[in-house]
Every structure is written in C-alpha cells, then in structure tokens.
UniProtKB/TrEMBL annotation:
One of its GO terms (molecular function) is DNA binding. Residues 140-205 form the HTH luxR-type domain. The lineage of its organism: Bacteria, Pseudomonadati, Pseudomonadota, Gammaproteobacteria, Lysobacterales. The keyword Magnesium does not apply. Residues 5-120 form the Response regulatory domain. This is DNA-binding response regulator. Keywords: DNA-binding, Phosphoprotein. InterPro entries: CheY-like_superfamily, NreC/VraR/RcsB-like_REC, Sig_transdc_resp-reg_C-effctor, Sig_transdc_resp-reg_receiver, Tscrpt_reg_LuxR_C, WalR-like. It comes from Cognatilysobacter xinjiangensis.
Amino acid sequence: MRALRIILVDDHPIVRAGFRQLLDMQSGWGVVELGSAAELAAYLRGGEVDVLVLDLSLADADGLVLIRQVLAAKPTLPIIVLSMHDSGLYVQDALAAGAMGYVTKRSGPDEIVDAVNAVAADQQYLSQDIRAYAQNPAAGNLHAPELTAREAQVWLLLARGHTVARVARTMDVSPKTVYAHRSSIYTKLGVSSDHELRQLALKRGVI
C-alpha cells in the first residue's frame, strides 16, 4: 500500500518538529516539513501530497487566501488548518475557504493524527475544543451577536490589520461589498475607525 504523503507547513521550526514527530510515528505515513507559503508553492509544482496541514499565520501569506490558491490548483486536496486561534470566527473562515479540518495547537497530541485520518477518508474534522461550533454554527458569532456572520468575518479580518482590498481578496468579494459591511459594522458596534475595531476585538477576545 502506498504511503500517505503529508505536507506540514508552519513557520515555527520547534512547533513544526513537534507535530512532525507525532505524524512520523504513524506506520505508512511520510511527512515533509515546509516553513513558508513560498516553499509550499515550490513543492506543489512537482511534489505529490495526499493531505496538507497548514498554519493560518504564515509570515509570507494570508492563510485563508493560500487555502483558496492551493484548492484552485488541487481541488480535491484535503487541508487541515493547524492554528493557535480557537475563535469560532477563525473556524468559520477556514471552513468557508475550503479547509476540511481545523485543529488548535492546544489540542491533545492525538487529535492531529485523528484529523489526518478523517480528512484522508473525506470526512470533516474539528478538534474537541472547537467542536461546539460544528454543532451550533451560531456559536462562532458569540463575540459579536450584533453582527451577521458575514459582518463578523469582515470585522475579524479588519481587526487583524487587513486592508479593505485584502479583505475583499480573502473573502472573494468586491471592495465595494467590504466597504458596505464595514460601514454597517461601525454603526452596530459604535466605533468610527479600524483602530477602534481592533481594540474592541482585543477586548472581546476575538483576536
């Protein structure tokens, strides 16, 4: 039986090495470590992969945009997000971008193994600490009950420091749509600038 080929992309070598050790312990799995979106792009031009494990917070790319770019080239590739973020908004964005799994870095060590097994079998996997989101998608919006799910996504991205143009690319919508959402968010949250949006996001624990 052919080995399961797993690509692990994280720009922190110690974190990457730890997760690779867990994956390498599984019989029949072959793991390649990469440290950047650029390295991933180079690998995908000629290398083979069955499962991609991807950190959202890479230094050289927006993880959500990268998911869409990878899936545009390899539509059937299962992608697992491996992230320090456990907010339902991050989970919602990752799944909307096309990820099949989401595992937080605080999860138990067996969960990354379970996630790879699940997505390789074409099944969605969420780590236990965020599984409530799957049972109740509205839970992802608890930090911002005033907002629609779409507005909450825009708020999250703006709070992370993204420009309107970058938000539009990430969400695959027009800048005009983002501006309209931002105006509504300002009104509903009682703020008047992106700086205030970020401060509120920090206060509510969104970022």
